[in-house]
């Protein structure tokens, strides 16, 4: 397979073994869970409101940083 890829002028990149440290969604979930714990919502409507507010705390640059910290190229549209 490698020979066919290289013959086509391409190269193959191997992903690291799974690790939460290399999964950007794990970092985002950690922040989300911390924000929800702080909100201490005790009813379903309050939980939904807390989730809406927590999502406002995520900025595009921060999400790009999660992806870049995991070793992936983060797309920057600016």
UniProtKB/TrEMBL annotation:
Domain Tc1-like transposase DDE: 2-46
Official protein name in the record: IS630 family transposase ISMex30
Pfam families recorded: DDE_3
InterPro entries on file: RNaseH_sf (IPR036397), Tc1-like_DDE_dom (IPR038717)
């Amino acid at each position: 397979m490698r020979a066919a890829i290289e013959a086509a002028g391409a190269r193959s990149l191997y992903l690291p073994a799974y690790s939460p440290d290399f999964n950007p969604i794990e970092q985002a979930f950690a922040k989300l869970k911390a924000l929800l714990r702080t909100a201490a919502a005790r009813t379903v409507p309050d939980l939904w409101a807390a989730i809406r507010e927590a999502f406002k705390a995520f900025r595009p640059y921060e999400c790009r940083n999660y992806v870049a910290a995991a070793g992936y190229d983060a797309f920057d549209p600016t």
